[in-house]
Amino acid sequence: MAEWLVEEGIGEQRAVRIDDGRIVAARMQWPGTIPAGAVVEALVTHRFPGTHHALVRLPDGTEAHARRLPKSDSEGTMVRVVVEREAMAERGRLKRAQATRTELPANPWPTLADSLQSEGHSVRIVHRFPDEADWEELFAEAWSGEVPFHGGTLLFADTPAMTLVDVDGYPVEAVSMNAIPALAGALRRFDLAGNIGIDFPTLTDKADRQAVDHALAEALAGWPHERTSMNGFGFVQIIARLTRTSILRRVSLSRVGAAARIALRRAERVDGPGVTLLTVHPALKAKLKPEWLAELDRRTGRPLRLETDPGLALEAACAQIVPDEH
Question: What confidence score (pLDDT) does residue 168 get?
Fold first, then answer.
């Protein structure tokens, strides 16, 4: 089984699986949300009459939909639940977590490494990813929502209903086939799941549509999902079990937070004696928590100088080493 590398960053944990010098799968976890796999004590706040379902309040104060609760777990009762799907931010609202009654031992805050190991993966925690694991490239793709391939581009859009992927390019027959390896790779690299809709160029010939279906089946082999055949308008729907927030959703819905974390990673990776000069867009300054900056000083062993530049793009923070003037 391929090994996962885990980088415990400032403000986030990152994990990648590398094959042939490239990231082929990735995950990202931010603190503050009880992750999938957590086993916690929760308060039953509302029972749904005639069912084994209820709303429960988790230790962080958020509510979750819980199932498999016996009738004896009345409102006001403390129960132990395992979080099956973490709470997820959507535009204008927070989608409740989903949980199940359990007798498993408490494990309130499993790390990203814990989650991967619980799934049977081999995990190694590293100080930093090797250069071949280009996290910056993956971040740039998630930030733009664009993944290029020969002859075209995949355009990703995260919506409350589903993740939509537009396959753009020409000629349509070649583009549809060329897009498939890039699409299969992006699903794993962005850690996508849930309801995914893919809009290929319209293929009028049924044999061409069947060829795309066959190529998709081969490219997605080993990735648990269900999938419709391509319809006459080029649309394919994929359903995969959703348990955690994808990298694409993290970046698209929390732009400033994502930009702040990539800025800290850049500052941590520069080497040499002197002072770390981190130049960021002004909107990022307030997002960079004092404890994060203190942790950056501790990890690098260098003092930090933080400057702002309104001419910088939000995601274009720059880190460099400058002489210590003292």
Answer: 93
Residue 326 has a pLDDT of 62
Q: Are strands 163-169 and 93-95 parallel, antiparallel or unpaired?
A: unpaired
Closest CA to 19 of 181, 179, 258: 181
> Quick check: 308 pLDDT over 90?
yes
Which whole-number Å values give the CA distances from 9 to 112, 127, 200, 261, 265, in the listed order? 11, 9, 37, 8, 7
Both 259 and 199 in a single domain? no
Task: Tell me which residue has tokens 């090994």.
Answer: 3
Q: How far apart are CA 85 and CA 83, in angstroms?
A: 6
Mean pLDDT of 260-288: 95
With CA atoms as reference, report the closest residue to 240 among 162, 308, 174.
Answer: 162
Laid out side by side, the sheet with 304-308 consists of 304-308, 275-280, 318-322
Q: Compute the mean pLDDT over every residue in the chain, rounded to the nearest whole number.
A: 94
Residues 220 and 308 in one domain: no
| Whether residue 302 is found in the same domain as residue 198 | no
Query: Interhelix angle for 135-144 vs 255-269, to 10°?
Result: 160
| pLDDT (average), residues 99-121 | 94
Residue 130, pLDDT above cutoff 80? yes
| 269 and 187 fall within a common domain | no
Give the per-residue pLDDT at 87.
Answer: 94
131 lies in some domain = no
**How many structural domains comprise the chain?**
4
Angstrom distance (rounded) from CA 31 to CA 111:
9
Q: Which residues pair with 197 in a beta bridge?
A: 164, 237
Range of the domain at 28: 3-33+110-126
Q: What is the pLDDT of residue 1?
A: 59
d(CA 249, CA 163): 9
- What's the chain's length in residues? 326
The secondary structure of 17-39 as a DSSP string is EEETTEEEEEEEE-TTSPPTT-E
Q: Are residues 175 and 243 in the same domain?
A: yes
